Amino acid sequence: MADSGTGNSVAQTILYLRPKRDEAIEALNLEANKLYRKEVAPPPEPTDIPLDGFSENRPASHLATHDIGHNSVSRETTPSLYPICPRVFRLGFDSIENLSARGFTFGSGPNSNVKLPYFSNNSSDTNSDYFRIHYNFNSGALLITALHTMRIGSASLKDKHGLLLMAGMSIYCGGVFEFTVEFPDLSNCAEDHERNYQVYAANLGYPNAQYTATSREEDPPVGAEHRSKAILGRGTFGEVHMAMNTKTGEKFAIKVLSEGGEQEMKE
After folding, report:
1. Edge-first strand listing for the sheet containing 251-257
2. Whole-angstrom distance, CA of residue 166 vs CA of residue 144
3. In a 3-state reduction of DSSP, which class is residue 230?
4. pLDDT tens for residues 47-106?
5. Do residues 18 and 46 lie in contact, with contact meaning Cβ atoms separated by under 8 Å?
6. Which of 60, 144, 169, 186 is a Cys-bridge partner for 75, taking CB atoms 3.0 to 4.6 Å apart?
């Protein structure tokens, strides 16, 4: 898939949220959201990925977001119920009117960056902020934090709890809004994207922010709570992965033993 737009536009892009229902498309068409509208070709096929091992022990902050009270999250799309929308909500380093470490807030509140209109038959609060998308500047992870009860895949995400964002995740909030997470193709502008991120982070007071490129494909699991972002080295007994915690976005070096290596280590 090729992104519609110039290389500079792609290098400024953080992610896309593709509307999956009529209400989300109506929100995209609002004049208040014109800054975020973009036409982008959809990916060739949906991504279904299970995420296991979540707990609900810690609160979220703008530097680290945490757990959801569900044992399994599936980032699955709804098959064939709605036509694929050719336009998306584009969040970029160049589309933030008021820089804040809170990132982008979605909802019907007065301070919401992206406006999602209030539907009286599905909510009791006419000024609800549903969620925000923001970075963990300690690791470069891109996170989603619930500001109202919502759903990621088939699991409920509670207020102030969050999750590492990955391609193919389905976001459902406000009783009627549904989106799929997509990331831009940075193959031709990776250095520019990292530079734009560093400028963005420095302007928010994080001059030494860590950067991690987002993947448009599934990151392979490393145990129940981590995803591999890169292989740091290989040895006789296995591989060392740079892995990211799916609950906090924190980075770890994790050694994965091969079958032969595991047997030799045990011996």
Report:
1. 226-235, 238-245, 251-257
2. 10
3. strand
4. 444 444 433 333 333 333 333 333 334 444 444 455 789 999 999 998 866 667 778 999
5. no
6. 169
